[in-house]
Design goal:
With 266 residues, the protein is mainly beta. It is 7% helix and 38% strand. The strands form three sheets. Strands 1, 2, 3, 4, 5, 6, 7, 8, 9 and 10 form a ten-stranded antiparallel sheet that branches. A five-stranded antiparallel sheet has the order 16-15-14-11-17, with no helix packed on it. Strands 12-13 form a two-stranded antiparallel sheet. Strand 5 and strand 6 form a beta hairpin.
Length: 266
């Protein structure tokens, strides 16, 4: 459950258009703050940009704690602390430059290991050599922040249009092919018309499955961002995910059905 203090701090610093989708929990060393793709992102604190990674130009992360973060901006804020902003759509600052609190540093995206537009906010404590819970730090900043006006009262920022998917059929099955879901797997169903969200989710503790009518490739040309779906998917023929796409790698596809023997008229 997300700390209420953290929610208040995020709303005070980022504004009502941002929403926490996941707080700081074990195995997730930061806070995920959801916003529209292309929304302006401004730094919550002054400091020096120590890392500004455009994943298209720098495919290999230079910090292990930036892996999977896509386009990442790190800002050293003093006191042996560094703030990390990850999954940005674009970056507006360069390494070595000094930035002021409230300065534009980039735009919200879904680059790297992201399933939709959001900002991953992390706080690195160099003394502990680890990412730490940012609640107290953000709450302290929020106490000195000017109230953030709702988006309707601020100057409107053009939002990047939703990326257009390129769907290519790899194979159309003559008859629907059954697939098996490994026990305990949670599947998500997607549609290329809504790349930033999953439309349905279901777990299969007993390994039950349904059938697929085709295998397809779904891509977003010209974008480094990887909003889902992105990759190889199955178009589901029936069941809970009917007419949605599920990742092919998460299921076991059954064999091609044997053709029915022709009836003999005698």
């Amino acid at each position: 459950m997300t700390d209420p203090l953290l929610v208040k701090a995020v709303l005070a610093l980022f504004g009502p258009d941002f929403k926490i989708t996941r707080g700081y929990i074990e195995g997730h060393d930061g806070v995920d703050i959801k916003a529209a793709l292309g929304h302006e992102l401004r730094t919550v604190a002054s400091g020096t940009v120590s890392y500004a990674r455009d994943a298209r130009k720098d495919p290999n992360a230079r910090h292990h704690w930036a892996e999977g973060g896509g386009n990442v901006v790190n800002i050293d804020i003093g006191g042996n602390r560094t703030i990390q902003y990850a999954h940005l759509h674009s970056i507006s600052v360069r390494e070595g430059t000094r930035v002021a609190r409230g300065q534009l540093i980039g735009k919200v995206g879904a680059t790297g290991h992201a399933t939709g537009p959001h900002v991953h906010f992390g706080l690195l404590d160099h003394n502990k050599r680890a990412m730490v819970l940012p609640t107290a730090y953000l709450a302290k900043l929020a106490g000195t922040a000017s109230p953030v006006r709702p988006q309707a009262q601020r100057a409107r920022t053009p939002v990047a249009p939703p990326p257009k998917a390129q769907v290519a059929e790899i194979e159309r099955y003559a008859a629907p092919r059954h697939f098996r879901v490994p026990p305990g797997t949670t599947l998500r169903g997607y549609h290329p018309s809504k790349p930033g969200k999953h439309l349905r989710e279901s777990s299969f503790p007993n390994g039950s499955g349904a059938a697929a009518s085709a295998k397809v490739s779904i891509r977003f040309p010209g974008l480094n961002t990887q909003p889902v779906p992105h990759g190889i998917f199955l178009l589901v023929f029936n069941g809970v995910f009917k007419d949605l796409y599920i990742p092919a790698a998460f299921v076991v596809l059954g064999p091609v059905p044997e053709p029915e023997p022709a009836s003999v008229v005698g």
